[in-house]
Specification:
Blueprint lengths: L10 H37 L2 H22 L8 H26 L5 H27 L6 H30 L2 H21 L8 H32 L4 E7 L4 E6 L5 E5 L2 E5 L3 H15 L5 E6 L4 H6 L7 E5 L3 H9 L1 H7 L12 E2 L7 H8 L4 E2 L2 E2 L2 E5 L3 H7 L4 E7 L6 H4 L4 H10 E10 L7 H12 L4 E9 L3 E9 L4 H9 L40 H9 L6
Parallel strand pairs: 5-6, 5-11, 6-10, 7-10, 11-12
Antiparallel strand pairs: 1-2, 2-3, 3-4, 8-9, 12-14, 13-14
Length: 558
């Protein structure tokens, strides 16, 4: 290699050669970090628990990068450009097909092997890049310090650009599977462009260019078929026909339809509701709290972007205002526009009783003031009716910014199956709720299974109680989920009074499942059901509820 580069020892040629290599390392750095993010995203989409998957995937990839960086020392100097291009072709192919292969293999006994094959092999190949390019650039720089500094600088700059492009461009335009194919194409193209200048120094240039061309054609074909392949792979994960599969910036949403017409909604592979029995869940979520509250004037729903809880709330004629806060605008859009959602929620977000406003987020100032500024009194047969304001914003940030008080707060979050969600079950979160709860107001929190995730269920109750709220647990069997639990909380009414009040309910709005006679049974548990084994509460800095949930709730994965 040293002899082959003697003709390039003039300063101008040396500088140009280094620039070509710097361009290559810049592109490789951008693609490398984007590969890490792509594999982390697909792993979290498939397995859930995004923080855990991102940490594990990136750390394992970095370890394998270190292995690759070390093992490159066994590659001889001869034909280094050929070895570099061949490695980049393999990297582009593996990076492109990794996510779709993982989707197809999900549910099989070999999924974990396949996942870590791609993570480790891609990490290993990325690890080869920097030392190989450093060795290639050695002939064109004056000293080791300049060589290493320039190579690492371009890699780090490329990583920054790759992260920005991945976050703000690629994932906005393409699905995660399509993004992988785009990265594979970019990877091979950048490698080819980088070595064209050095083609005279390559022994197998024509052969490698044919391989690179075939790889690019294959990756472009994969990109064109990504949507079809993804749909086929999605279908293999569900027993019923997939009728919708979309990935928003926040979650992956799938709707399936059984032969008997039952609709199931999954978010990140977890069942969110089934049309077969969602009325049992949502009637239990809404009506006990509404019956215990002294007033129904202002209602706050956190989560519940599907509009099913709002459907039940609108059965109360004295409701004047409903504020619905759901992080994902895609979910509230489905609730307002998708025929199946609209049929289930009875057009609760499009009702003549409802005026809808949307906020993408607020950086400063009370959020509630925006709603007040936009409100218009709506009349139906000369009678003022309920209004709804929809905010697509993080619930914690919402509570930090609002003014005013709510008579009923309905918390319909997903289970605490990640650190991100665990914060919505924290003592600090309930403290914010308490500040916005009317003196005689009622809170009800969806709280996972008191049987299969008992310790997480009890931790949620302890965390609410630690803020000074009085709490009452209730439960009900929802066939799609099994035994399910909620916590009811009040500022003024004691647990005993809340329980007694349920037995005094004489009537309910029109319901399919709940009856006044049945309400008291919701608060009846067995002797051992509510026995605490520890006194830990969930906090923002110590999300113990997530750890407890993970320890007991593997049965919940659908």
């Amino acid at each position: 290699m040293k002899e082959a580069t003697l003709e390039d020892k003039t300063p101008n040629k040396r500088n140009l050669a280094s620039l070509v290599i710097y361009f290559s390392i810049f592109g490789m750095g951008a693609c490398g970090l984007a590969y890490e993010y792509t594999l982390s995203k697909i792993a979290s989409d498939i397995l859930g628990n995004s923080i855990k998957q991102w940490v594990i995937v990136i750390s394992v990839m970095m370890f394998c990068m270190g292995v690759g960086s070390d093992l490159q020392k066994y590659l001889k100097d001869k034909d280094l450009f050929d070895k570099f291009l061949f490695g980049e072709i393999i990297l582009g192919i593996l990076g492109g097909i990794g996510p779709i292969t993982m989707l197809f293999m999900h549910g099989s006994n070999h999924y974990i092997i396949i996942q870590y094959f791609f993570i480790c092999s891609i990490g290993f190949l990325i690890g080869l890049e920097i030392p190989l390019l450093t060795r290639l650039n050695d002939s064109y720089t004056s000293d080791l310090k300049s060589n290493i500094g320039s190579i690492l600088k371009m890699d780090y700059i490329g990583s920054l650009v790759g992260a920005i492009v991945w976050l703000f461009v690629l994932t906005k335009i393409f699905s995660i599977v399509e993004t992988a194919f785009v990265l594979g194409i970019m990877n091979v193209l950048i490698a080819v462009l980088g070595v064209l200048y050095f083609r005279k120094l390559m022994s197998y240039f024509k052969t490698l260019m044919i391989l690179a061309a075939l790889a690019i054609v294959f990756l472009f074909y994969g990109l064109s078929q990504a949507s079809t392949w993804t749909s086929y792979a999605e279908q293999s994960l569900y027993k019923d026909r997939v009728i919708l599969a979309e990935t928003s910036p926040f979650q992956h949403v799938v709707l399936t339809e059984a032969n008997n017409g039952v609709i199931n909604c999954f978010i990140n592979r977890h069942l969110q509701f089934s049309s077969f029995d969602e009325h049992i869940y949502h009637e239990t979520l809404v009506h006990p709290a509404m019956q215990l509250a002294k007033s129904h004037k202002n209602i706050l729903v956190l989560g519940g972007g599907d509009g099913l809880a709002v459907r039940e709330i609108l059965k109360y004629d004295d409701v004047e205002s409903i504020t619905l806060v759901d992080l994902d605008p895609f979910m509230t859009k489905l609730a307002k526009t998708h025929p199946l959602f609209r049929a289930l929620n009875k057009d609760s977000l499009l009702s003549s009783k409802v005026r809808s406003f949307s906020s993408a987020g607020v950086s400063r100032g009370p959020i509630e003031s925006l709603a007040v500024a936009n409100r218009t009194t709506i009349k139906d047969d000369e009678k003022t009716v309920a209004k709804i304001n929809i905010y697509n914003i993080d619930a914690l940030n919402f509570l930090k910014n609002i003014n005013g008080f709510y008579d009923v707060m309905i918390l319909d979050f997903p289970d605490p199956n990640s650190h991100d969600l665990a914060k919505l079950y924290s003592r600090e979160f309930y403290g914010l709720l308490l500040k916005r709860l009317a003196p005689q107001g009622i809170v009800i929190q969806q709280s996972t299974s008191p049987v299969h995730a008992k310790e997480a269920f009890l931790c949620i109750g302890r965390s609410m109680e630690s803020t000074g709220l009085n709490v009452l647990p209730i439960h009900q069997n929802v066939p799609s989920f099994g035994e399910w639990g909620w916590w009811i909380a009040s500022r003024e009414q004691s647990s005993k009074n809340l329980k007694q009040a349920l037995s005094k309910v004489k009537s309910l709005p029109e319901t399919r499942f709940l009856s006044p006679e049945y309400l008291p049974s919701l608060a009846i548990f067995g002797k051992e059901d509510l026995v605490n084994v520890n006194d830990k509460v969930n906090t923002l800095t110590r999300p113990i509820v997530h750890e407890l949930y993970e320890a007991d709730a593997n049965w919940l994965l659908n």
